[in-house]
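User: Second chain of the day. Same drill as before.
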Amino acid sequence: MSISVGDKLPSATFKEKTESGLEEVDTASIFSGKKIVLFAVPGAFTPTCDMNHLPGYIEHRDAIVERGVDEIAVVAVNDVFVMAAWAKSSGGDGKIRFLSDWDAGFTKAIGMDADLSAGTLGLRSRRYSMVVDDGVVKALNVEDSPGQATKSGAAAIMEQL
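Assistant: Same format as last time:
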């Protein structure tokens, strides 16, 4: 069963590459007491994710933050090194938080896992965005197709803030 508006995010751990090295961060430390825009992509560097979804959030970052958002984060079922490389190559480093759900633990816990083996990606995340306030989902936008980023894009999320 997928997460819904009004649900509290489950406890999960992500990995991040920071200036001090590899770190594990849990959902409580990311979401407690904060308003976060979280969006998920099927894979870093994949066409829709890299050319459409992420760039919109980078471009509209300041406008989103001005609407009372503490932070914007992207999550993908990719390893921490891929996420760090994507942060740097995309220009999103320091603007968007890049979370590695390396074992799909978070993705599975919220029911957003998808078998994209037909596209050679294997187990990944569905494409979605959400507004999370103090760990509770306030808005949720799930794409019907992994190749689309309209419902879950930055323009759509700004209408919900």
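The helical segments are 27-31, 47-59, 61-66, 80-90, 105-109, 154-160.

User: Great, on to the next one.
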